[in-house]
Amino acid sequence: xxxxxxxxxxxxxxxxxxxxxxxxxxxxxxxxxxxxxxxxxxxxxxxxxxxxxxxxxxxxxxxxxxxxxxxxxxxxxxxxxxxxxxxxxxxxxxxxxxxxxxxxxxxxxxxxxxxxxxxxxxxxxxxxxxxxxxxxxxxxxxxxxxxxxxxxxxxxxxxxxxxxxxxxxxxxxxxxxxxxxxxxxxxxxxxxxxxxxxxxxxxxxxxxxxxxxxxxxxxxxxxxxxxxxxxxxxxxxxxxxxxxxxxxxxxxxxxxxxxxxxxxxxxxxxxxxxxxxxxxxxxxxxxxxxxxxxxxxxxxxxxxxxxxxxxxxxxxxxxxxxxxxxxxxxxxxxxxxxxxxxxxxxxxxxxxxxxxxxxxxxxxxxxxxxxxxxxxxxxxxxxxxxxxxxxxxxxxxxxxxxxxxxxxxxxxxxxxxxxxxxxxxxxxxxxxxxxxxxxxxxxxxxxxxxxxxxxxxxxxxxxxxxxxxxxxxxxxxxxxxxxxxxxxxxxxxxx
Length: 495
Description:
Helices cover about 65% and strands about 0% of the residues. It is mainly alpha-helical. Helix 5 (about 100-110) packs parallel to helix 20, helix 10 packs parallel to helix 11 and helix 14 packs across helix 15. The radius of gyration is 22 Å and the shape is globular. The N and C termini lie close together (about 5 Å).
């Protein structure tokens, strides 16, 4: 089967034009704050927009038939196109040294990982800081989903792209037309971002800090405007509680959020994934809080009352657990210094991930749930070998092919993690750091363990390690199969 390159490059053009428009938005903020790089951001937008316009005009007479293979190509290479074009503002403004560092930072942005090589964020021009947050915000929902919202204007159906972008086990849709689904998801996305911005502004953040953290937060990103991340506001607990709430929201299935917006709160009660997500967060937060309170010197001081310490321990414990489970990556404290046992717990939390259909990365709660259920059902199948015992989810029978897909996904995920760790060790990282960075990159978490913990940056990693980490970020963001399938011979065979 011949690949329809015209439609592929046409989509690339659309993505580039989206990127260019957002660069103009960043230039507007740069102008408002008079940070001296407005012209550079405008030039960046013009370059990217012009290339995108050229691609769309040159390939406008395309065949409208888009098969699944071409959908995967658009998604995978579309992300690469976005990353390369998203690096233009950094290059033109000369705000980040070295092409490798630029690609790493941009990849971390679009994949919503939140790992950074910047040692002094606060010294950057505000326009660049805002552009970093925009890359999170675009990548959070997926630029592809945004793009397919306008496809009816082009006379194209976008189901192939949506299935490649969101290959999770659930096929729930808000509306029969995939385009309308994308529009509704982005409406929720924008609404929640604005609500958080308003709340953070009310409780003490500047508008600039509030909008940046909201864009980063709802995308499950982790880029902050401050070198200390959310620890900068440790003296304003309400800000951190707001961020905790929206990190939790960002890790929730957006389709479920849509039903909540519609007043259908009963959907929450019957959703097994959400209930397990909530239980995970509450259980691990309680465990962490108890261990920190009784077995560490965290917040122990003559100036701090018992009540203040209890509140602080609970808040910081809840914050870190939600941050890692949702793969947001904001930090308020150095959790690696609490106890060795908790270090292991936080490392394990990197493999949980948020809900399917959320902006979070990682393995996803629903996959854990179905694996656990299938594992327990194996005991029943052993006792009753002739019985048909299906896995049930939300009172519905799960097809066996989905269970097999998840089992395969788990094996490949762990294999990729191990290969990732081996790669990092080969590139000079010690054992603990290699494991941590591999889990963090693949799960799009951001903060790691070892030499690249929550209070550090990734600036000291070697060039090859940064490229390897960038690759794992993309693989994790697009959920393994989507990326790894292009490395199979079968994918490229003419059929």
